[in-house]
Amino acid sequence: MNEAQLLQQAIDEPVRLAEYDPVWPARFDAERNRLLERFPTELIEVQHIGSTAIPGMPAKPIIDVMAGVASMAVADALFESILEHGYVTSVEFNASLTDRRWFMRHANGRRTHHLHVVVHDGELWCQRLAFRDALRADPAQAERYAALKRELASRHGTDREAYTRAKGEFIRCVCAS
Q: Where are the alpha helices (DSSP H) in the chain?
């Protein structure tokens, strides 16, 4: 397969959960270091979010990285440099986002990393960290989320956006409590 075909395969990759892999934090650390080496002044902080950041949680084996910047203007200014640093994205998709910029790394036709560039200490930054920390602190709640993820992955295996939207109410409830 050529690079364009591998990218398309990664874009179209179905929702498949894997059991927690203890190597995920090390993969995050490596990516955080890679990003901070390239953007030492622009990135205020880089955090591991998503299910790969929650010990024991089944997840799509994609490392979710959240990078905090001073403003969305900074996020926009970094756009091309992030693409030059091994990420890809859809300009059209990002145009629909008001609170973040989204990028993806891939290898061999599979997604490896999602990068969410958001305003540091902004609403989305705080929400994502609150959700991660709540699940890390409450095993029963984490198990409910894991069960929901399994059910939604089987129902929306070919529709990533539907899978993500269907988790929204659970996430809102956890963040509101």
A: 3-11, 24-38, 72-84, 91-95, 123-137, 139-155, 160-176
pLDDT of residue 48: 98
pTM of the model as a whole: 0.94
Question: Which string of b and e fits 109-144 if b means at least 16 CB within 10 Å?
Answer: eebbbbbbbbbbebebbebbbebbebbeeeeebbee
CA terminus-to-terminus distance, the chain = 48
Other Cβ atoms less than 10 A from the Cβ of 25: the count is 14
- Look at the chain and report how many structural domains it folds into: 1
CATH for 14? 3.30.460.10
Cβ pair 149, 58 in contact under 8 A: yes
Which pLDDT value is given to residue 146?
A: 97
Per-run averaged pLDDT (10 residues), the chain, 177 residues = 82 91 98 98 98 97 98 97 95 92 94 97 96 97 96 93 93 90
Domain of 94 in residue numbering reads as 3-176
| Rounded Cα–Cα distance for residues 29 and 48 (Å) | 8
